Model the fold of this input.
Amino acid sequence: MESVDDGETSAVDFEVVQASQAAPGSQPAATSDPIDLDGIARDLADVEFALARLDAGTYWQCEETGQALSDELMESNPVARRLPTS
Done:
């Protein structure tokens, strides 16, 4: 079977990688939880947006107020876009 690298990873690709990393002669571990591709896509979009903000020089600023985002906030949530609400 011919493989085409379209730059995207599917659940099937992930299972193939898992199987290829299994010890010789062993069966790959069965997973009961499906891979959350929508969640992964959202995380990737958040990271890409954070990188765009970094390039624009606005990464450390709240997008609503313009106030500085604390180092502690950015360390705990690197894709934070707003100051936490109280």
Observations:
- The mean pLDDT is 80.
- Helices lie at 11-20, 37-56, 71-76.
- The chain is about 40% helix and 0% strand.
- The CA atoms of residues 9 and 64 lie 34 Å apart.
